[in-house]
């Protein structure tokens, strides 16, 4: 089943980054909280620039029309749980939104979608929303601070567990449990292939 498992939002707030002896604060919206879950499937309004109640701090790399929503597959959470435990010794469960995502998705991986594909989300309880896959995520140092270990961003790049950005084509409301259907776009570049191309270009 391909469906929304959680919707997560967060305001831009100071985030502590860096090593303990060289730490500082930067403004970031990476800390998200689930506001719609299977246990409490509250409809959340989606606008052209993202979900109600959500903010991005650095619009040069997040937000805007082409990166209005960030989606992440829940299937990767187990790997992140293991990586964090190995790095920090913490074995508490990572809540939805821990990767900074707005949509925690079930049944849709980076290897299964292409740049330009569209996602239609809705169950008939309310008009569907339509989003277009625009890019894989390129993580930064803020992910290290969010997950609590310094190599998190590097491991996201190496694993390819990037999640992906979405452009909003049709606004509406979304709630946890809503099914997702995928419609093919031009299918010139698969999402994980675009991530590899981005990574290769950044290495030069």
CATH architectural name: Beta Barrel
The CATH topology label is M1 Pyruvate Kinase, Domain 3
What is the CA–CA distance across the termini?
40 Å
CATH class: Mainly Beta
- Total helix count? 4
Strand content: 25-35%
* Total number of domains: 1
Q: Tally of extended strands?
A: 13
Radius of gyration: 16 Å
Query: CATH superfamily, please?
Result: PK beta-barrel domain-like
Q: Low-confidence segments, ≥5 residues, pLDDT <50?
A: none
Structural class: alpha+beta
Spell out the helices and strands N to C: EEEEEEEHEEEHHEEEH
Approximate shape: globular
Overall pLDDT, averaged? 93
Q: Please give the largest β-sheet.
A: 8 strands, mixed
Strand arrangement across the biggest beta sheet: 4-1-8-7-11-10-9-13
Fraction in helix: 10-25%
What do these coordinates show?
This protein is α+β, with helices and mostly antiparallel strands and about 200 residues long. It has a single domain, classed as M1 Pyruvate Kinase, Domain 3 (Beta Barrel), CATH 2.40.33. Helices cover about 20% and strands about 30% of the residues. The protein has 4 helices and 13 strands. The strands form 3 sheets. An 8-stranded mixed sheet has the order 4-1-8-7-11-10-9-13. Strand 2 and strand 3 form a beta hairpin. The longest helix is centred in the middle third of the chain and has 12 residues. The radius of gyration is 16 Å and the shape is globular. The protein starts with a strand and ends with a helix. The mean pLDDT is about 95.
